[in-house]
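Lab notebook: predicted structure, single chain.

Context: the supervisor wants predicted structures on file for every construct in the current expression panel, including those that have not yet been purified. This is the next one on the list. No modifications to the sequence; it matches the entry in the shared construct table.
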Amino acid sequence: MDPMNNSLDNQTGTELVKRYETLLQDNLPCFFEEREFLRIIGFYETEEQWDRALEAVDHALNCHGYSTDLHLKKAQLLIEGHKEALALLVLEQAAIFDPAEPGITLMKAEALCYLYRYEEALELLENLKTEADAAGLSDIYMIEALVYETQEEYERMFYALRAALQADLANPDALEKLGLCMELSRKYQESIPLYEEVLDHDPYAYMAWYNLGHAHAYFSNYEEAIEAYEFAIAINDKYEFALRDCADLCFELKQYPKALRYYLEIAELSEPDSDLMLHIGQCHQEIGQTDLARSYYQRAVQLDVFNDEAYYCAGQAYSLEEKWKQALRSYKRAIQIDYHREEYHAAIAWTYHRLGQAEEADRHYREAIELASEESNYWLEYAGVLLETNRLDEALNLLEEGSELTAETELLYCRIACLFAAGKRQEAIYWLGEALADSFDKHRSLFEWAPALETDSQVMALIASYSLH
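Prediction complete. Output recorded below exactly as produced.
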């Protein structure tokens, strides 16, 4: 459309509304042509002024009482306002003037659906199917899908939407609704050939590419999913859902530069939010740009002072640079917002350890393992700190306690390292044999705790003997 003509159309529409409102204020008769009334009503709909839209349609019907379009418009507004019973009365009136109009029956079925009169709605739709053309049939199946959606019968909803799309491959509403229904019904496998059929018909159907990306992501076909999302973005570079899903998937796959590019595109398209700033910061941090990362974390907390993850990530950025006091401040802000996050306690414990404050470190490590006692990594990290500071009896007691709550063999390898460090060599050798028999493939973790054991001939001989099993 010519931008100049579009501007003139908008201006004329605004002028129409001004004329209409002036006549109302002056209590003068409001007479406009039907198409002018429809533009006035459309203006109020765009502005979400529903009461004014209904008022305008009533004035329009006073002038054009036999108009099917105006009756349908009034019924639509009543349905949107959850006044379905009134909508049915309007539709009955419209049917007197134009009994052959299928749009009246379609809207009746929609109103009946919202009134929980499902069988009546489905019967009306079934009767319409016999004489409908392809586009009409597609609309019928769309309302049928709505009936099943309202009943939470998502499998039937899927098949109705599939029929709507097969009747009209260019139906964008069916395609959009199908994406949601695919998730609700878990019909991912059956959806893929349908999207491919749409794309054979129209390779520029960005919604089909987007839905196809979702289906591939469900089956862990991540590269195919990213490719599909990127086609959707190439066709419609302002389609934020595709940008977000593509960025999130790239982030999960550790493709941080690509994820960053899409997150930044989202930031240009929409009002930045706290979580978006957080994600951008995380990408910068992962590619080693910690200063930039911290600046985005700061923006994230400016937009939402309760974004605990932003404070936590800022703490991680400071920790990478061994700026422990600054890290501690950030971690404390995170833990004040959400005290029940074990990773926050573990991070603050490690920071206290680096600052030489053992008592505070112990307290937060205990909080971490209490919150996530089944997670071996917190037991191991705390044991590593105790081993590093030569608190061997405490480390052995901790690992014994942890082994009762998690079956992770790495705890045993850590315990063996502690036994060697405590001079309990015979006991250590015994438990090393048990660990190797139970989980040989994890034996390298022993050397993370006690690197010197790699030159211990007895230890290496025992490991070699189990490597032959």
